[in-house]
Each structure stands twice: as structure tokens, then as C-alpha cells.
Specification:
mainly alpha; 4 helices; membrane; transmembrane helix; Polysaccharide synthesis protein GtrA
Length: 118
């Protein structure tokens, strides 16, 4: 599958960035899980958007679908953090759930892009 190894590396590094920022903001700064998860998403999204543009997207393809994906993942990251806050669950649960969701939806988006131009 074209560029699958590049996508896998991007998702893994994205998850590491997300986790580090989350635990810095949640543990050291004392922000809520929702705010920490959303801020961590924003930092990791900038990284993944830039790297994906370099290694996966071909010139001339529309980025609308990819931007829509990132907006929906931002809402999901805040929602997962909000649920974690409401249930008083440990922060690692929010990070793990978001990582699994990101992995599944990122793979689905890649398959969609591989089959169709957005």
C-alpha cells in the first residue's frame, strides 16, 4: 500500500507528541483533561498536517477533506477529555482513547484518500 509506512510513523510520532503535551498541561500545569487533550491535539495536528503534506499528499489534491478530518478530531479530543473530567478518570485513559480513535480514523482517511481524490 502506497505510503502506508510513512502514515504509520506519522501516527506514532503524533501520538507521542500528543501524549507529552497532554501530560505536561494536565500534570504539571494543572489544566483539565478536556483543555489539555484539545491543546495537545492542536500541537500534534500541526506536526501531522505538515509532515503528511510533505510525504503523502500529491500536488494538486484538495485538502478540504483532510481539514474537515482535523476539525472533527479536535472536537473529539475535547469531548474525550470532557468525559474523562466528568468521570474523574486518570489522564492516561483520555490519551489512550484518543490515540486509538486517531489511529482508526487516520487509517480510514488514508484508505479513503487512496481510493478517491477529495
Amino acid at each position: 500500500m502506497k505510503d502506508f509506512s510513512a502514515l504509520t510513523m506519522i501516527v506514532l510520532v503524533n501520538g507521542l507528541i500528543h501524549g507529552e503535551i497532554f501530560f505536561l498541561l494536565y500534570g504539571a500545569v494543572g489544566l483539565t483533561q478536556a483543555t489539555s487533550n484539545f491543546a495537545a491535539f492542536c500541537v500534534a495536528a500541526v506536526f501531522s498536517f505538515y509532515v503528511t503534506a510533505l510525504y503523502i499528499f500529491e500536488p494538486g489534491k484538495s485538502w478540504r477533506g483532510y481539514l474537515l478530518f482535523h476539525c472533527s478530531m479536535g472536537v473529539a479530543s475535547y469531548g474525550i477529555g470532557s468525559i474523562g473530567d466528568a468521570l474523574s478518570s486518570p489522564g492516561w485513559v483520555a490519551v489512550a482513547l484518543y490515540f486509538l480513535l486517531n489511529l482508526a480514523t487516520g487509517y480510514s482517511l488514508f484508505r479513503f484518500l487512496e481510493c478517491r481524490v477529495l
